[in-house]
Amino acid sequence: MAKFVRAWESADLEALVALLTDDVFMSMPPMPFEYEGRDAVARFCAILLGSGRRFDLVPTRANGQPAFGAYLRAPDGIRRGIGLYVLGLAGDGISAMIRFEASVLPWFGLPRSLPDQ
Fold it and tell me: How far apart are CA 47 and CA 82, in angstroms?
């Protein structure tokens, strides 16, 4: 999980994609967006991470799976919660990434925002 956090927080797409299984599945309920396969997920992540936005991840668990509150770094220093990523694992790889809306963060003991660093 440390490799995932490093890759995501540093926007290292190559490192992130290296962690994904060939058949990785990504969804974002309740939005109807779904991506299946390493290439499709990589294209989506390239748009997200290549936009110049940077994120901080805060670890938690969801249904026994590793999960992370995702916080967008704003110019004012505040890091605002934008969602919760729940990962599915298969062997040494990430086989699923499910992103839930930020409204679920308190259910996992996570704040809606993080203070300036």
Answer: 16
| Contact partners, residue 87, CB within 8 Å, separation at least 6 | 1, 4, 65, 66, 67, 68, 94, 96, 97
Q: What is the pLDDT of residues 52-81, one digit of tens each?
A: 889 999 999 999 999 999 999 988 888 999
Contact assessment for residue 57 and residue 69, using Cβ atoms and an 8 Å cutoff: yes
Let me know if 61 is exposed, middle or buried by CB neighbors in 10 A (0-12, 13-18, 19+): exposed
Cis peptide, bond prior to residue 30, ω within 30 of zero: yes
Residue 82 has pLDDT above 90, yes or no: yes
